Amino acid sequence: MAREKADYRPMVEQLNERFPDKEFLKPDEAAQFIGCSRRTVDRKFKGSFIKGLGISKCTLARLLCS
Q1: Alpha-carbon distance 66 to 51, whole Å?
Q2: pTM for the predicted model, two decimal places
């Protein structure tokens, strides 16, 4: 059985505190949270965004912890 990364839950909690009313984040919001440009988010997490929705907070937390 796969184990979750050590910082996964705290990362999800931070995302929930910052964006309590959203389940999916747009690229601009993800860039703001990470502290980088929109272009960097597009390049690093290219295949993780769902067209019209964005990226789920769980997916973003998993990618940031890996």
Answers
A1: 23
A2: 0.88
Instruction: For the chain, give the DSSP string.
Output: -PPPPTTHHHHHHHHHHHSTT-SEE-HHHHHHHHTS-HHHHHHHTGGGPBTTTBEEHHHHHHHHH-
CA angle 34, 40, 42 (to 5 degrees): 105
- Give the residues of the chain that fall short of pLDDT 70: none
- What's the pLDDT at 3? 83
Six-digit token string for 21: 């009313």
CA–centroid distance for 7 within its chain? 13
